[in-house]
Amino acid sequence: MTPAALADLVRSAAVRALGTRGLDPAVVPDEVDVRPARRAGQGDYATSVALRLAGPVGVDAREVAAWVAAELAVSDEVVAEVAGPGFVNLRLVNSSVGEVLRSIHEPGGPVDRELPERVRTRTHGTVTMAGLVELVGADAARYAVLSGKSTVDTEVWGRHVDRNPVYNVQYAHSRAFSLARNANDLGITLSQQDGTELLDHPRELDLVRALRDFAPVADPRALTRAVEDVAEAFHRFTHTCRVLPSGDEEPTPRHHARVALCVATRRVLASGLGLLGVTAPERM
Prior knowledge:
Blueprint: H1 3-19, E1 35-36, E2 45-47, H2 49-57, H3 61-72, E3 78-83, E4 87-92, H4 95-102, E5 118-120, E6 126-128, H5 129-136, H6 138-146, H7 154-157, H8 165-185, H9 202-213, H10 220-240, H11 253-276
Antiparallel strand pairs: 1-2, 2-4, 3-4, 5-6
Helix pairs in contact: 1-3, 2-3, 5-6, 8-10, 8-11, 9-10, 9-11, 10-11
């Protein structure tokens, strides 16, 4: 479920919550805020719609939040809990994880982006775009400019280091590709991946949320941030969760599900990098 669809679901619940109690549902705003949760353990998203409605209907915000949460309880896609002074925390149920993964398709073709003729660097002054390519490479030069850097640090962008954003994203893609390839060698194929309901580790769900929130937007700055969010979530996931079986261990449904997560990550990163006109390497 996308954030926009979740917002529509929350708005409908708020309208029902007021209407069934004889209160005016017209006070529910046309657009309901649904934002990613700020801390682990608070669900996937949160909404302050009850806080906005409390004044107009003359009811305590926590009570309004409880009404909204009760209406959302009839949905099999989300679990809602009242928090703080009247927030409603929202957690997508595990059954939706598979839908998120299956909704991710292969990347499309690149989109042309207009690049500046000259770029300011930290150590080489102002250089031409071609000069920047010579200093840091074509992918890093293009990515740095599209991400909105006013000044490019060639000592960072020209090296394979953690501080280099394009390296982090490309490495995440190659790592995801490698895990999927190795999984195939072990007989773990997409047709067998039926255990996505087992993805309940916080790092697994963080990555699912990053994939779900990814959108191939036209704004290159937003697009670079989006692929970086996916890459960071993937790095945290692989650092914490073992994807493939080790030794003589037989593959389990959880292994299949984690491989599916790697395949989805590869597709999303390839899509984002392709739109930016940056290569998505299979090996690094």
